[in-house]
Design goal:
five-stranded antiparallel sheet; mainly beta; single chain; 4 helices; elongated; about 500 residues
């Protein structure tokens, strides 16, 4: 055991035992019984054997450990006899004799009792007052748990007596399928009241007043209304109501009287008459997101704006603005700045530009026929100017001509009045020069008259005086013939 787990010394016959040897032995024994560091008798090795009983000197008052039944047994001296009073076992503190052990005394009382379960007692006294079966003495009592009223026959009820003419009953009507009844005065099964059956159905004999704003129902679908079918009120979608095929003058609609009259009916004839007045609806400005359920018929009128405002047609996303057609077989389609014009008659598309609003003069821009198979693009000029077409008498500037003009692109000749001076070399072929029809000089040639020569046959045309021709002939003629050039000159 603790403090005495081993002998300090061993002795054999003939050994001399000194006082120190005895002192060591007894010191170990004292240590084993030390209140703090001594052995515990917990049953482990070195701690001494387990303690199975605690008793007084005469063993009349004791506590026993019953390992067989797993009990802790408490005994008290009763008339010089050890009598078992109670035992502690799994889940219970059990008195040995029924109606024998008190819990506290009148002078030594427990403070609070906490019970999570059922309290069963033959009698209960509150502040010295015994509770009767009718709870008549429970003035101001508060119940935080369940209050069960169980009667062998009749209607179990809670009756509120205001000391007046009426008593309010909260009861189960045993004669009416055990319905919960709340009523004033009389017996439970008679008179006006409120009845709740086991299925949750509530019957009110009088009027039902709701002080709040809402009545919540399982079928309370958004947008539904309560409709009476002759027996019940049911939540019905407006779209599920039967539809009137035609509206008669005496048919009525529901309307709110804004003058304070609340919800009222209004006949069709009255509604139509009201719409014809000056105070009727004249525009849809109050509706910020109006939608059409069908085609919009302007009935011969215009769509106009005020204060110089624009009229915008803005299709969503990849939508198009289509005018007079479906955008495929005919009509005008506007898509992101592009305008497509198609006819549904097979004729080419045209755009007419009128000179005045009230004049019949118009210029027409039209497409080539289908047989031409044309997909040409016409790009407007960069600079300010006028587009010149066939039959026009306008002027074509040098900047308007890019490169050469193919002969196939010219119909007939170009009048002299349409050509300015041609100054670029190689632009007039020699074969194109025509002198037979020219006008004669009308005078004799002189050495100062000019001719056109190809300078060195290099393709550069230059002017030359006839005097250079005489010099050339003299330079290349023989001595005998040098006078030929002079003679030719004289002859000329």
């Amino acid at each position: 055991m603790a403090g005495y787990s081993a002998r300090q010394s061993t002795f054999t016959t003939g050994d001399t035992i000194l006082a120190a040897h005895s002192n060591d032995e007894f010191n170990q024994l004292l240590a084993s019984f030390n209140a703090t560091t001594g052995h515990t008798h917990d049953g482990t090795a070195g701690e001494g054997g387990p303690i199975t009983s605690i008793r007084d000197a005469n063993t009349l008052n004791k506590v026993l450990v019953d390992s067989t039944n797993n009990h802790l047994e408490f005994y008290v001296n009763v008339s010089s006899s050890s009598v078992q009073q109670l035992r502690i076992q799994d889940g219970a503190i059990v008195p040995i004799t029924t109606n024998d052990i008190d819990l506290g005394t009148s002078s030594l009382q427990f403070k609070d009792v906490f019970i999570d379960g059922t309290l069963e007692a033959d009698a209960i006294t509150l502040n010295g007052t015994a509770l009767s079966s009718t709870f008549a003495s429970l003035s101001g009592a508060t119940f935080t748990g369940n209050l069960e009223i169980d009667v062998a026959s009749g209607d179990p009820a809670i009756i509120l007596d205001t000391q007046g003419a009426d008593k309010f009953h909260f009861a189960v009507d045993d004669s009416d399928s055990d319905n919960l009844v709340i009523k004033s005065g009389g017996t439970v099964g008679s008179g006006n009241g409120l009845k709740l059956d086991s299925s949750g159905n509530l019957t009110v004999d009088g009027d039902l007043t709701v002080s709040g704003d809402d009545i919540t129902m399982a079928t309370n679908t958004s947008g539904n209304i309560l409709v009476a079918d002759g027996t019940n009120f049911n939540s019905v979608a407006v779209g599920d109501l039967s539809e009137i095929s035609s509206v008669a003058a005496d048919d009525v609609l529901l309307a709110v009287d804004t003058s304070g009259g609340g919800l009222k009916k209004i006949s069709r004839s009255t509604l139509v008459s009201g719409l014809a007045t000056s105070s009727a609806i004249s525009n849809v400005v109050e509706d910020t997101t109006p939608q059409l359920g069908g085609d919009l018929d302007v009935n011969g009128n215009d769509i106009v704006s005020v204060s110089n405002g624009n009229i915008n047609l803005l299709p969503n996303g990849t939508g198009k603005v289509i005018i007079d057609g479906n955008g495929t077989s005919g009509g005008v389609t506007v898509t992101d700045g592009n305008i497509d014009i198609r006819t549904g008659t097979g004729a080419v598309s045209k755009v007419k530009f009128y000179c005045e609003s009230s004049n019949a003069h118009a210029q027409t821009l039209q497409a080539q026929p289908h047989s031409a198979g044309s997909s040409a693009d016409i790009t407007l000029p960069v600079a300010t100017g006028t587009l010149i077409g066939t039959g026009d008498t306008g002027t074509v500037s040098n900047d308007m001509l890019a490169g050469s003009i193919a002969a196939s692109k010219l119909a007939g000749s170009i009048p002299d009045s349409k050509l300015s001076t041609i100054s670029t070399a190689g632009k007039v072929d020699l074969a194109a020069l025509e002198i037979d029809g020219g006008t004669d000089i009308g005078a004799d040639l002189t050495t100062s008259d000019l001719i056109i020569v190809d300078d060195g046959a290099g393709g550069t045309n230059r002017k030359a005086a006839l005097s250079r021709l005489i010099t050339l002939v003299d330079a290349n003629a023989g001595f005998a013939t040098k006078g030929f050039a002079t003679a030719m000159a004289i002859a000329l």
